[in-house]
Design a protein that fits this description.
8% strand; globular
């Protein structure tokens, strides 16, 4: 499975956003990486700003270029606001939903759980992180994996924050995707309109 495996702190500093979660490096060095990071930054072009926003979205959701382009193409073919639909499709990925439910502390950890066949969808094991969920689908932990320390620790540490599009059943260790999220409910700091403008060129 292709995925980004490079330094996370460097990417977070580039976007000045903790896109992989809390980062001490971002607190200590609130400027871009590299020998010119502290220097005066030249004004970015419109294209550069749009490209940076796309890159941020890709790193945030752990999607590589071809997958991201395919997801955008699907969003464009649907009726509605393309940018919002793009984020909804990214949020509806199985790995992202496992992360939102608190089964894994990070999206990278969620991808690993899915790939190692610890996660079920509607009672069936699914090991494809990019699997696209539909409203009504139930995502759960496989019976044999419910005592896995990585999962129990993550659920224990998961905050009480609830996402309105997800219904979590603590006793059964599963959750239902009630609906696709509204844009205002998605907490990611992504300016999706800039991505739409980039692909429209």
């Amino acid at each position: 499975m292709a995925r980004y495996t490079g330094p996370k702190a460097k990417i977070a500093r580039r976007f000045n956003d903790p896109i992989f979660g809390f980062s001490k490096a971002l607190q200590k060095k609130a400027y871009p990486p590299g020998q010119h990071g502290r220097g005066r930054r030249k004004k970015q072009s419109e294209y550069a700003i749009q490209l940076m926003e796309k890159q941020k979205a890709k790193y945030t959701y752990g999607v590589l270029e071809r997958q991201f382009a395919n997801t955008f193409d699907r969003a464009q073919r649907k009726s509605g606001i393309t940018g919002e639909i793009l984020l909804q499709l990214l949020e509806a990925r199985l790995d992202n939903t496992v992360y939102r439910m608190g089964i894994a502390p990070t999206r990278r950890g969620a991808r690993q759980l899915v790939s190692h066949k610890h996660i079920t969808v509607n009672g069936e094991i699914v090991n494809i992180p990019s699997y696209n969920l539909q409203p009504g689908d139930v995502v759960g932990v496989r019976e044999k994996s419910k005592s896995l320390e990585a999962i129990t620790d993550s659920l224990a540490a998961h905050s009480a924050q609830k996402y309105p599009w997800i219904e979590w059943n603590k006793a059964e260790m599963n959750g239902k995707l009630i609906s696709l999220p509204m844009r205002d409910d998605i907490p990611e700091n992504i300016k999706e309109q800039l991505i739409v403008e980039l692909y429209s060129k």
